[in-house]
Amino acid sequence: MAAPLRIQSDWAQALRKDEGEAWLSCHPPGKPTLYGNLTCQGIGQDGIPEVTASEGFIVNEINKKSIHISCPKENASSKFLAPCTTFPRIHAKSVTCLDISSGGGLGVSSSSDGSMKIWQASNGELRRVLEGHVFDVNCCRFFPSGLVVLSGGMDAQLKIWSAEDASCVVTFKGHKGGVLDTAIVDRGRNVVSSSRDGTARLWDCGRSACLGVIADCGSSINGVAVGAADNSINLGSPEQMPSEREVGTESKMLLLAREDKKLQCLGLQSRQPVFLFIGSDAFNCCTFLSGFLLLAGTQDGNIYQLDVRNPRTPVQVMHRSGAPVLSLLSFRDGFIASQGSHVGKADLYLLSRWSCATLSAL
Question: Quick one: pLDDT at residue 322?
């Protein structure tokens, strides 16, 4: 894989000033990092800055939305996207989780400042503050309706909120440790949670009840994903008749990203194992790309692409840097990944499903 390029996070703003500068760097594996600068030489009549790069780097193209940089010595290039909009006043500290409603109108986010808020996606206007978790909120997401939010916190509770009036309509209790991730099954009559207590649980939203412990791993489960299985995959049969309160669990796979370096897949309804894969470090996150393809990211920077039909050997292992992979999201014919940074920020980049570095943004 080509050496990853990085750029100052606010480069778009910095380079719109005359003689404004932004740093950039190239990180070839096993070699010293190459550092450089971008400098604005002026603003053109079309509003696009004229930018030059220091020795070792080339500005291939720049427009109002992106800049394309290359480092010929390392045969590396990346296209960095400028943010369409920035909302600096929603949270006082780092954003730990974020989701957008299915219609695109609302956003919900949690922060290390202990808050969870709903805001207008078009302009960042604050709509609701969701208060009720005792400690930090680790995860939040909209139900498919876009009118209800599911959250999980370090207080070992899951909560369901109304996005319309910020009321907490349901609280789930049963985990013995902080809730780290959640997944919604179909339209949301059932949800799945994972916890520091090493369990993944299935919940009945209508009755505020736990329908069962799907897995008990003895190790923190950092991430979960639910996906429809391809017909060729054997999910096994349940040992007991599923509860009538289970809705939409048939033909579904449950993926668990575990702290003990294991990626586990089970039949959601059957509770039967599908595969267990051992990675290079703790798994932080996971997602399905299709009925048989999946992704999982590790603490040491690897992104594994696996085929459920033959999970022993990865389809590919992508490695951009040694920083932890924090989240993965299927997007069009590829996926979006976020990765922690050694300087306290995070990289966000878009990858083709079949290529390791088609587009990159910081």
Answer: 83
